[in-house]
Design goal:
4-stranded antiparallel β-sheet, 7-stranded mixed β-sheet, alpha/beta
Length: 298
């Protein structure tokens, strides 16, 4: 395979991506050409949602082609287009043969949740200091522990405890939060998601970790739970406010993630009729919001 690299301004990323796709590029990636320099730009987006911008002020694009002739033809055709003005070809080079499985695995090291709680891929030995681990490999569903929202939820579970509780993981993805709750002693766990692939992933990951939980589509969630976890996105969390609050038992905990710092007030307002949310943790521009349901009136 061969890589074609080029440099372009932000406003040309979209049209160049379409052009490279039409020229039979196997893949196209975009990165900040100023990464690791003082000019680097941070772009914060939400998982599963379109990025806030198509690219950076100076974007480096890399297109992968099956044959060198295709890459060179792309160079020739792109250079002749009016929209290529202001862009620059950086070069075409062969991609070295590699053990792609081993390379992919090398990118997923054990992830620390707390000093003694770690997420460990199956091909790694647990760190010596780990007292509690979740075995999890990258898969089809969101939630490998590498994202701040997932780590913050797991950290909350480890620090607050769910021993003997009935727990709901709403929007379970890989099932990592439900598995974390099981590791910390939850007695009954429902893990639900609108994506059947996520449900399957959750079941398989629970089996791999030797824990018991019930996974299914959202209608599997029934009754009240001492802890309700939802690591989704801010917009669906706002829509789901009355439903999620209805699942929280009196004096129970609601734990929400997938929220950017700037969205805190929106979430507080959305949940205010039922519960008072507060920011409990933050990491890399993301926040964890929690609340305690009012106790049942005597």
């Amino acid at each position: 395979m061969f890589e074609l690299s080029l440099l372009c301004p932000e406003d040309r990323v979209d049209v160049l991506s379409d052009a490279l796709d039409a020229l039979d590029a196997l893949s196209v990636s975009v990165e900040d050409a100023d990464a690791q320099t003082p000019a680097e730009q941070a772009l914060f987006g939400e998982p599963g949602m379109p990025p806030p911008k198509d690219g950076w002020q100076r974007s480096r694009m890399v297109a992968l082609f099956a044959q060198e002739a295709q890459a060179q033809e792309a160079v020739h055709l792109l250079s002749a287009q009016d929209f290529f003005e202001g862009c620059r070809i950086l070069g075409v080079q062969a991609v070295a043969d590699q053990d792609w499985v081993r390379l992919t695995q090398s990118q997923f090291a054990p992830v620390e949740v707390t000093p003694d709680f770690w997420i460990v891929p199956t091909w790694h030995e647990p760190p010596a200091q780990a007292r509690q681990i979740i075995r999890l490999d990258p898969g089809l569903a969101f939630g490998t522990g590498t994202h701040p929202t997932t780590r913050m939820c797991l950290r909350w579970i480890a620090q607050h405890g769910v021993q003997g509780q009935r727990v709901l993981d709403y929007g379970c993805g890989s099932g990592i939060l439900a598995i974390g709750a099981a590791k910390y002693g939850a007695s009954e766990i429902d893990a639900v998601d609108i994506d059947e692939a996520a449900v399957t992933s959750t079941v398989l990951n629970a089996e791999a970790n030797g824990v018991s939980l019930a996974a299914g589509l959202p209608d599997k969630a029934q009754g009240r739970y001492q802890t309700v976890l939802a690591n989704i996105l801010a917009t669906p969390l706002k829509v789901l406010a009355p439903l999620l609050c209805s699942y929280v038992a009196p004096s129970g905990a609601l734990v929400l993630a997938g929220i950017l710092e700037r969205q805190a007030d929106e979430l507080k307002a959305a949940y205010a009729p039922w519960i008072q949310l507060e920011v409990a943790d933050s990491e890399d521009g993301w926040i964890l919001m929690t609340a305690t349901s009012p106790a049942m009136a005597s």
